[in-house]
Amino acid sequence: MAPVDSSRSNLRRPEIGGGIDQKLSKPKPRLDGDDFCAICDNGGNVTCCDGGCQRSFHLTDENSERSKCRLILGLSKEQAENCKYKKHQCFACGELESSDLSSEPKVFQCEVDDCGRFYHPKCVAKLLYPESKLEALLFKVQVAARENFTCPAHECIVCKGGENKNHRNMQFAVCRRCPTTYHRKCLPSNIPFEMKKGPNGYMQRAWDEWEGPDGHIIPRDRILIYCTKHEIIKKLRTPKRNHIIFPDAKKHREPQILVDAPTEEDIPEEGMLNNAEPSQSPTPVANDQNQCSCSSPIDSFAPASLFTYPHPGTCGWLGD
After folding, report:
1. Is residue 17 scored above 60 in pLDDT?
2. Cα Rg of the chain, angstroms
3. CA separation for the pair 60, 68 (Å, rounded)
4. For residues 272 and 265, what is the distance between their CA atoms, to the nearest angstrom?
5. In a designed cystine with 182, which of 85, 173, 266, 283 is the match (CB 3.0 to 4.6 A)?
6. Closest to 88 measured CA to CA, from 112, 55, 129
7. Could you tell me where the Polar residues compositional bias lies (predicted)?
8. Percentage, residues of the chain above pLDDT 70
């Protein structure tokens, strides 16, 4: 079978028809997701995020190396915190930005169905048009106007051709850390499929097989690689696993209601209010602008020396 070649312009050209209406903008639906954990890059029993970023994670509670993925993962009801709060990293520069299409997004997702990569318009334009500032500027404007685009991970960095999974030499080798992609036939020799020990040894950087959920080894039609821009940690056999940033959930939490709203039984009738006796203790007047005027402390039979903190109901307690 002859390889299928896709021209550079067809891969990059945004769809004609202007920007996308904000009211009609929707996140990408979930597909099958990635076969590998987005944190440790291993296969096995992984769970795909429901939010549309196409990433998968290890959620196992087993006492294993993979159980560490759960400890650093921000996941809520099988949805990563990035998708929950609509904040994703630019796959080029790594900066965490808003991807909320209902407001003012800073990063935009590639239009390819199984691609979960987000980019700043400036970053993706620079990657696709490194030699033409004018074309990069025009492309940046189009992406910022929400026109669909295809990111550089879907073309070979050497020959600029597209992918053909049915032709061995035209299968893609995609880096897990950056938008660098090769055809198998274009893969450089310094990205090896095997590790070599010894003084002149090197670490493995390419894999064309993976471990399925049942433990069986399955050949892949897309190669996983770490390109030479990323240093391999010998103990991990991967680059540093600090590449994913989750939003700070504390900044997005809804305020909790500490006291329930009063019910009808809690509200006194008008007659009770009129018959209520005035307080015997007049409210003290504050002597300083920085002091508050509050009621007297609650009555207690304990000596005052035991109360090292303010009494509940007096100034000095939060929420009073």
Report:
1. no
2. 30
3. 9
4. 13
5. 173
6. 55
7. 276-293
8. 59
Least confident range from 207-211, 227-231, 278-282: namely 278-282
| Amino acid letter, residue 221 | D
User: What's at 185, amino acid-wise?
Assistant: K
**Residue 279 burial (10 A CB sphere; 0-12, 13-18, 19+):** exposed
Q: 112, 224, 113, 221: which is closest to 171 by C-alpha?
A: 221
Contacts of 234 (CB under 8 A, 6+ apart): 203
List, in order, residues 6 or more apart from 111 with CB less than 8 Å away.
15, 148, 149, 150
Rounded to 10 degrees, the C-alpha dihedral 290/293/299/303 comes to: 20
User: What pairs with residue 181 in β-bridges?
Assistant: 174
Q: Tell me, what amino acid is at 36? A: F
More confident residue, 64 or 234: 234
Question: Could you tell me the pLDDT band of residue 207, with boundaries at 50, 70 and 90?
Answer: very high
Q: How does the average pLDDT of the chain come out, rounded?
A: 74
Helix (H, G, I), strand (E, B) or coil at 271: helix
Q: What single letter denotes the amino acid at residue 138?
A: L
CA 92 from chain centre, in angstroms, equals 14
pTM of the model: 0.66
Q: What is the pLDDT of residue 197?
A: 87
Model confidence at 86: pLDDT above 80: yes
Task: Determine the 3-state secondary structure of 175 from DSSP.
Answer: strand
* Strand ranges (E), 101-213: 108-109, 118-119, 172-175, 181-183, 206-211
